[in-house]
């Protein structure tokens, strides 16, 4: 039980004296209406403040009743600044006899990982290269400009259309990886600058919502491949994943789809909606955003949330109008050229996006919460793809998924530098570090 004087907390009033708590008591406060967490042995009551958390209330709620020190350090590029928001929430500290880690986690492993992070900081691996990101944005802009020049000089014939589809697909895929960088605050030193550019890139170049992305993606990083906490594996009865969920569904006799054929209908998630109409939006992304609403405006139907997206919305509206006005087939060809004439970007990057993002996670362990330490939990849910110039470019450096998950705010061009340190630490504690060829990674998804 806690000991000491009156506690402060959400009221913002300072505690009369320090109160001490045991892990047994802290772990009881992991409910929706009662959330405590520990950061560097200090205990915070985030129950009411969670709703104002910039990263979303769910991601902070997933750490309730736990030591959130490593998650806190992983997501914030300026922890000192964030401390001013934590100060009014402080209610006490861990009792002197209590270990710094909960649930019998390997304290030496945790300390060694934090030492590794400090080493990476001392090596300036969290400092972004302006030249790298300028060149990266530049090659996207070059593809966009080239596409519009082709329209101006060659019109919208079928050969031009097919070439444009390839160019703009590549541009869209690369813009997707770029928005990922800004979303993780890994480019600029100030969070606000990252957020502003992120809204522009994901809104104007991608036609998606920054709020929607943040809501889902930060949860994924905090608790990867954990049911009820990682939205990427909460597939709303479309797929059953991992080893335990199929058994659970079998016992409860839950059968929303023929799961024994999910390796076949998995590919349907990447067919453009509806039935190859060039609205450029695919089935997987709209299903996620409609069926799993993040309590923010829809990424494509609410342009205001996309930063005034004036490019994708007309294409979407035009495509759905075609779908509902039969006959559909004769108008498909008109719509493809119409979209290009209106300079609406094609987003035929669904296969590219889905295969790259899932090859690091779907073949890995997918299970319920096991309360592992930060290193072990990320390693169990992620794997790497062999490094090469093409693999780095094709995946947006997500072939270094392990390093990215351990250090989400680290600029991607530094992953290869921290990789040997991570492998060495894993070898020391017998933590499996998996790396595979790109082709095998794709095959393993279906497997």
TrEMBL record:
The keyword Membrane applies. One of its GO terms (biological process) is unsaturated fatty acid biosynthetic process. It is found in: Membrane. PROSITE patterns: CYTOCHROME_B5_2 (PS50255). Pfam families: Cyt-b5, FA_desaturase. The keyword Mitochondrion does not apply. Residues 18-95 form the Cytochrome b5 heme-binding domain. CDD domains: Delta6-FADS-like. The chain crosses the membrane at residues 124-142, 148-168. Pathway: Lipid metabolism; polyunsaturated fatty acid biosynthesis. GO terms for molecular function: oxidoreductase activity, acting on paired donors, with oxidation of a pair of donors resulting in the reduction of molecular oxygen to two molecules of water. SUPFAM superfamilies: Cytochrome b5-like heme/steroid binding domain. Keywords: Fatty acid biosynthesis, Fatty acid metabolism, Lipid biosynthesis, Lipid metabolism, Membrane, Oxidoreductase, Transmembrane, Transmembrane helix. It is a multi-pass membrane protein. One of its GO terms (cellular component) is membrane. Belongs to the fatty acid desaturase type 1 family. This is FADS2 desaturase.
